[in-house]
Design brief:
GO terms for molecular function: L-isoleucine-2-oxoglutarate transaminase activity; L-leucine-2-oxoglutarate transaminase activity; L-valine-2-oxoglutarate transaminase activity. The chain has 279 residues and is an alpha+beta fold. Helix content is 29%, strand content 29%. The strands form 2 sheets. Strands 7, 8, 9, 10, 11, 12, 13, 14 and 15 form a 9-stranded mixed beta sheet that branches. It has a 6-stranded antiparallel beta sheet with strand order 2-1-6-5-3-4. Bound molecules: N-(5'-phosphopyridoxyl)-D-alanine. N-(5'-phosphopyridoxyl)-D-alanine binds next to α6 and β13.
Length: 279
């Protein structure tokens, strides 16, 4: 694979980043994951807008140039022959002597991008549906900033796997926040799509925004509010959204079947509508 590091396209075996990089030492870094379908970037503007916001929230002295970043994404997609998959971008505050204080603004940010081939459209998990378990949300309180502090989500996913499930839904103050790396939704008895409202408690998903807009266009009812695991277990359907999973049905929570335990019609329809809109 060819990867991008600070202005250079190099084979992955030749790519290097300093051991003093603050992304490595302090998780002082932000990232984005953009899906690629048919060689095309999905919702790229949304990802760049969110990246700009993450950079601003952390006062990173990095310039986020949409046209330049698009060019790098497209170059990597082409060089690595990505028809379907993902582009990962990570931007750190750069390398500096280890100090909790940010270095002065002359430090050069580190920009790294790489690609991953992945069948995102024909994903067998979308036919099967996912099993999730609930776990406490022990992440920090600024989940709206897309930082690389992913250790807790990683631990939670390991725990979910140990319990025989595919992922975890995280719970704080009795309410579901989101999944380890996706936004969480339920469908109530009257067909309303319910997902947590935007705040610092969740990542403002780019796929979430697109799916909610498409749902409203299709005349579906959407309510942005918190919900409990008990409400989710009693829901008609459940699903998650993310750039890598699109709309992914959830068929059980903590071992309890959602609906009849198979992929729900609304989740299937939304996935279809979303995929159609990409074409
Ligand atoms: N994760 N919530 C969390 C905690 C996430 O990490 C993600 C994305 C989402 C969905 O956001 P979007 O629709 O913009 O992808 C919600 C990416 C895909 C990842 O970490 O791989």
């Amino acid at each position: 694979r060819i990867v991008y590091v600070n202005g250079n396209y190099v084979p992955e075996s030749e790519a290097t980043v300093s051991v003093f990089d603050r992304g490595f030492l302090f998780a002082d870094a932000v990232y984005e994951v953009t899906a690629v379908v048919g060689g095309k970037l999905i919702d790229f503007d949304g990802h760049v807008t969110r990246l700009k916001r993450s950079v601003a929230e952390l006062s990173m002295p990095a310039e986020v140039d949409e046209a330049k970043l698009r060019g790098i994404h497209e170059e990597l997609v082409s060089r690595n022959d990505i028809d379907e998959g993902l582009v990962y971008l990570q931007l750190t505050r750069g390398a500096a002597d280890r100090d909790f204080l940010y270095p002065d603004t002359s430090t050069t940010p580190t920009l790294v991008l790489f690609t991953q081939k992945k069948a995102v459209v024909e994903n067998p998990a979308a036919e099967r549906g996912m099993a999730v378990v609930s776990l406490p949300d022990l992440r920090w309180d600024r989940r709206d900033i897309k930082t690389v502090q992913l250790l807790y989500p990683s631990m939670a996913k390991m725990e979910a796997k140990a319990q025989g499930a595919d992922d975890a839904w995280l719970v704080e103050d009795g309410m579901v926040t989101e999944a380890t790396s996706a936004n969480a939704y339920i469908v109530t008895g009257d067909g309303t799509i319910v997902t947590r409202g935007l705040s610092n408690a969740i990542l403002h998903g780019i796929t979430r925004r697109a799916v909610l807009a498409l749902a409203e266009e299709a005349g579906l009812k959407v309510e942005e509010r918190g919900f409990t695991i008990d409400e989710a277990k009693a829901a008609r359907e459940a699903f998650v959204t993310s750039a890598s999973a699109f709309v992914m049905p959830v068929v059980s929570i903590d071992g309890a079947k959602i609906g009849d335990g198979s992929v729900g019609p609304l989740a299937r329809r939304l996935r279809g509508i979303y995929l159609e809109a990409l074409a």
